Amino acid sequence: MLGLKSYRFGRNLAKSIPSFLSRSCTTTPESTGTDQQMANPHPEEPIIVEKENNITLIGINRPKVRNAIDSITGRKLSAAIAEFEDDPKADVGVLHGIGGSFCSGYDLSELAGQQEPQQALSIVHQPEGVMGPTRRMIRKPLVCAITGYCVAGGLELALMCDLRVMEENAVLGFFNRRFGVPLIDGGTVRLPALIGLSRALDLILTGRTVTAKEALDIGLVNRVVAVGAGLGQAYNLAMSIAKYPQLCIRHDRDAAYYGTFSAESFEQALEREAANVTVELLQEAKEGADKFRQGIGRGGSFSGIKERKLPDWERAEMKHESKL
């Protein structure tokens, strides 16, 4: 029996390690071509989407340019996020970079290659944004895993997300300041709301480097983790959100954003908060109240708050073990 339990534990452990984690790691100069191919089986795809249970992982895959985003990649990122929003089985997303850096901003080689100013202007005026869907509100929670460089437009992408998990040696900053490239993907709008106008202007006007410690101290990021743990910890954070009833999550998230960015007054924000309560949301709340009445959640334990759906292979093994 002990052997069977050890065997089952080993299979559970193997299945619980997501395959995407290895692709987020930094490749070293000593890595062979075979090693890099194994770490990144889709080298030609600029955006890679993977799904783990009700978590959708969206990876920027241009490691040769530290995941700088050109106009094509920006459109593909917008499409990937829209698909995640429309997927009824996806509750939380994780945005990350493949190959060691999150994103080094807009690919300036594309801008330098534009012969006519009107061509460059057409890129700037893309409805959803240059870097991705940065000019609208994402409809579901999105966690950003910050590794390596997260600068210029890459920092604007991170600000688009709800929460940010940063590795301790990662680098933030509006490095576009050095080249006279303006912020056009929401950085000047979202950053002051997150950390206050004075601190935001410090980062926007100077373009200086921001360390992980400072970013955490001023509220620019939500977690600082060890090198190599960024994507894994971002995934864990996403899971901690995805385990809860989602209609309530989305209602409260929407109310917080509306009150911060769109409401004309405190009273209007409160009216919107109450007005957006639906029959479906109340039914979800009733189910939660019934669980509480049954004793779930009392004493600080919430292990039964959401039923765990076992995969078929695990059900089969449990059935086999019960016959021994």
From TrEMBL:
InterPro entries according to UniProt: ClpP/crotonase-like_dom_sf, Enoyl-CoA_hydra/iso
Transmembrane segments: none
One of the Pfam families matching this protein, by short name: ECH_1
Superkingdom of the organism of origin: Eukaryota
Entry-linked SUPFAM superfamilies: ClpP/crotonase
NCBIfam families: PRK08259.1 (NF006108)
Name the record gives this protein: Enoyl-CoA hydratase
